[in-house]
Amino acid sequence: MKMTTEEAFVKTLQLHGIQHAFGIIGSAMMPISDIFPKAGITFWDCAHEGSAGMMADGYTRATGKMSMMIAQNGPGITNFVTAVKTAYWNHTPLLLVTPQAANKTIGQGGFQEVEQMKLFEDMVAYQEEVRDPTRIAETLNRVILKAKRASAPAQINIPRDFWTQVIDIELPAIVEFERPSGGEGAIADAAKLLTEAKFPVILNGAGVVLADGIDASRQLAERLDAPVCVGYQHNDAFPGSHPLFAGPLGYNGSKAGMELISRADVVLCLGTRLNPFSTLPGYGIDYWPKEAKIIQVDINPDRIGLTKKVTVGIVGDAKKVATSILAHLGESAGDTDRADRKALIAQTKSTWAQQLSSMDHEDDDPGTSWNERARADKPDWMSPRMAWRAIQSALPREAIISSDIGNNCAIGNAYPSFEEGRKYLAPGLFGPCGYGLPSIVGAKIGQPDVPVVGFAGDGAFGIAVNELTAIGRGEWPAVTQIVFRNYQWGAEKRNSTLWFDDNFVGTELDQQVSYAGIAQACGLKGVIARTMEELTDALNTAIKDQMEHGKTTLIEAMINQELGEPFRRDAMKKPVAVAGIDPADMREQQV
């Protein structure tokens, strides 16, 4: 049938059920945004495209449904880069729509022109440019399907002069592929290893959440009485109340999980790429079981065996593979020392829970004293761990939470647990600052009946603070945001104390700024909490205001300047002066 190119584009979006778009309005996309309302597509006009992309990531991660990112060609599109790479490592299927400068003038260095395909070639799982107006629906359909299959962002690039053309077109068919369930031989080998294991351990990653495989992994764990750890920032990949749940590995994770996996003779790594950061030593414990047999399950064959020596590799959907392994286990699977193993799991978890509940302060490394000085400087202020315990007292079990990158958010890695997936929106291994607020806004758009709470340090929050000017409008849902206020870039300051003799370059923030005051100036509710009791009360009230009165609240939690573990002990070392630097060597520039 005959239709315009923009009609073909939007009809294809409708075929795939894409109902939400995030970005900033621009002339290059107006032909399609003009008909979004008629199509049932909501356009969320944000304050910055980077935050828009993180809202899209939060929406899709909280719902499992694809959303779209779109903005003006050139600078509007370049602002998406960080968000797109974040979604790539979060395994989030997103549609990136990049209107391009017109074919007629491209290459002449015209207004808002940039190589948008080259820009994202390392950021997306698939990209394609529309070559002819008649192929716009075909190309869009393929890009969306590629994003779904790869569980990652995919890009369609469209010269802006391809809009408002009348074409003769047949809308494409949607051909879905069944996800692989693992080879028969690999499943049999894995089942044999687990049947014969004396101390099996399961490690769940993001793939378990994405495949809706939590219950399948639970059944397998119960059959084996195997403790279940989760990967870094994937606390929602197993029910937190389950007696076999051992907690997250990696940075500031669970000592119980680390101690238990260190005993493993067989580890089933389910739906995880085993990225190096997630298995680094923690609390001084080098816990990865170097002699254990490793079974790695991943949908992407390129990730299997990439970081750890693997005994059995299985390419497949985490849910299907877990179900198949369970069906192939021998009758004696899990029987060796079953009672002793269950008792050890319970005792190890109990010991860690008691230790965690009594941890009030951060230790100093030998030869440093920053944390001691920080406590003495503000003896009445909350420490980061006090703040996290106060938060846990008020956080609803059903809440979706987001986190940002930074020292205070990372200290909280061991605290939250969840009963179901798609509840913990951490920024992931690309590690962008400014993720906490926009991602939780996107989650609330997708799950309006669920309480949502975002967390950020004050440095990272400064990158997304401008979204407070956008989210107070009537059509935007209410959220709750907690900002840990200690007036410093904590993660980098910790590096400075350990390796650079307290030479704090660029780590100090403006103490005259009030984020609660900025929230109030934007028509939102801004609250300051100085004690654990005030923080718990403020969060209880904010959740009630969010759910019952549609009010967004920013809570500024005032905490002392204690600093937790550095992110990268493995990548840092103390520098040594050789030639030396002298300020007298600086010369004035000639103008």
Structure explained in plain terms:
The chain is an alpha/beta fold. The chain folds into three domains: 2-168, 3-Layer(aba) Sandwich (Rossmann fold); 184-353, TPP-binding domain (Rossmann fold, 3-Layer(aba) Sandwich); 359-558, Rossmann fold (3-Layer(aba) Sandwich). The chain has 22 helices and 20 strands. A six-stranded parallel sheet has the order 3-2-4-5-7-6. The chain has a six-stranded parallel sheet with strand order 11-10-9-12-13-14, sandwiched between helices. Strands 16-15-17-18-20-19 form a six-stranded parallel sheet, with helices on both faces. The mean pLDDT is 95.
Radius of gyration: 25 Å
Number of helices: 22
Largest sheet: 6 strands, parallel
Oligomer: single chain
Q: Name the CATH homologous superfamily of the largest domain.
A: Thiamin diphosphate (ThDP)-binding fold, Pyr/PP domains
Query: CATH first level of the largest domain: which class?
Result: Alpha Beta
**CATH topology-level fold name of the largest domain:** Rossmann fold
| Uncertain residue segments | none
Tell me roughly what share of residues is in helical segments: 25-40%
